[in-house]
Every structure is written in C-alpha cells, then in structure tokens.
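Figure 2 data, in text form.
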Amino acid sequence: MSQLSTFFPDQHDCDESEAIHFTARTLERVAHCFRHIGIHYYRDGDTPVFNHLHSDQYATFLYFFANTVHREGGDPRLAAKVYYLNKMLHGLDVYYAVDLPPIFLFVHPVGTVIGRARFGDFLAVYQNCTIGGDLDLNYPSLGTGVTMFSGSRVIGRSIIGSNCLIAAGASVIDHVAPDNTVTFGQRPTVQSRPTRHTVIECVFQHAAQL
C-alpha cells in the first residue's frame, strides 16, 4: 500500500485490512490460473509459482487484484489505483470492470488494451493487441483456447470460436472465425483457415518452446 501512496498522493490512504483481505483472495485466483499454465516458471510440478519480479505474472496479479476489489464491493478508489498502477508499470490497459476468464496468459503485453468482451478460458494475449467495441458499443465474443499474437485486433461484432489463433497484425472487425482456425489479414480481406495446432497444448503447455 505504501507503493500506491507514492504513486497516488491524494490523501485517500487505502485500508490496510481491506488490502490484506483482497490480496489473499487475489492470490487464490492467481494460483488457479497459474495451475493451468505449463510453462516452467509458472509452476513447480503441480504447485503454482508466483514471482513478483516476473513482469507478466505481476501484471496478471495486478489485474486480478483490481478486478477482485471491484467484484467483491471493495473501495473503488483502490481498484482504480491498482488498475492505473498496472497501466503505468506494464503499459497494459485492462480496466478493473473487464471480466477476463479465470485462466489466461499475458505474454509481455506492453501496449495491449483489453476492453469489455465475452471470454472463454485459455486466452493468451501478446504485445500490442486490442480487444474492444465499435462505435455502436458492440463487443466481440472469444471462445475457449484463443491466442492473439502481436499487433492483432478483434473488434466489434466479431465471434472467435474455440481453439483459434489470431495472426500477428491481423485486424478482425465484425468477422466470424470458426473453431479450429487461424485468422489473418486486414479488413475487408480477413480470412480464417483450418489450423493443425491446439492452442491449449501449444501455448499453455509448451509456450516456452515457441
């Protein structure tokens, strides 16, 4: 909490007992998430490992913390400060009211902006990605096992199926990507083709080898 006071000297100190409570609840969510990531520095055997000096892991912790405060009716100023801290430290913009799935993976997500959408588990997001609504506030839906590679965007009424890859630099707007496909290109020439890869196996279990 002293770190928050340093960044936000607004004379609204956060309640220490509330912060301790939400830290415990947050670590439960972090453990559940990391338990499903097979990369060696996320787990030691079946035991999840959290290293605050691993920036992707710390970004995940800060998102879960801010979102937990919001979901459980905590001080909205605390949620806002932790959200803002994540933005400052990692260049990652995920508002605390956005409900990411219980299991997801940030991969050096500098420049990534994730807005309101419907998400399935096993979402992996790389750097400089965008998920968001259009001018009419239509938001995308992403199935289970979706990976967005660097610089890709999923916007508007897009529906991304399960076990899908969004290629680096793809701009997906109001597009339907069936299950088991890789989507690439820029609107209006976006295409989805079958993929032989399995996102959960390749990204969440063997990402260190990619």
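Caption note: The longest strand covers residues 181-184.
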